[in-house]
Design brief:
Elements (H helix, E strand, L loop, with lengths): L10 E2 L4 E6 L2 E6 L1 H7 L2 E5 L6 E2 L4 E7 L3 E5 L4 E6 L2 H4 L3 H4 L8 E4 L12 H11 L1
Antiparallel strand pairs: 1-2, 2-3, 3-9, 4-6, 5-8, 6-7, 8-9
Length: 131
């Protein structure tokens, strides 16, 4: 496996989501590993604005040429924003999973739940052991 540039400014889950805190907002997407495993992404079912989600709860679905996959919220909170550009261009996630390919943002989140998530280094180690 090639070395993946896993940004160290966010936290990671064992289900391959990432979360980045920006002030009162927590931005969520899937990792490079996840988009690579899924293959060409063809559809993203975005969560509803205002929906309250719990940590590790499925809140949206990504479909690809290979499979459909649930996306889980890394922490509890309320859906503040969704990346509407994914409705017409879901492949953005394949091209740029850590920036333009973000999926949703949370507000009123429980920051204490971040402690249970992995750092970039821990996530890369997890990927090595998952093989």
């Amino acid at each position: 496996m090639t070395s993946i540039n896993t940004p160290d400014d966010r936290k990671y889950t064992k289900t391959h989501e990432w979360i980045k805190i920006q002030g009162e907002k927590a931005i969520v997407g899937i990792t490079h590993h996840a988009q690579e495993s899924l293959g060409d992404i063809t559809f993203v079912e975005l969560p509803a604005l205002g929906k309250k989600v719990k940590k590790e709860e499925s809140c949206c679905v990504i479909e690809s040429v290979k499979a459909a996959s649930d996306i889980y919220s890394p922490i509890s909170g309320e859906i503040l924003e969704v990346n509407n550009s994914l409705e017409t261009s879901p492949e953005i996630i394949n091209k740029d999973p850590y920036n333009e390919g973000w999926i949703f943002a949370l507000r009123n989140f429980d920051s204490s739940e971040l402690a249970g998530l992995m750092s970039a280094l821990e996530y890369n180690t997890f990927l090595e052991t998952e093989k």
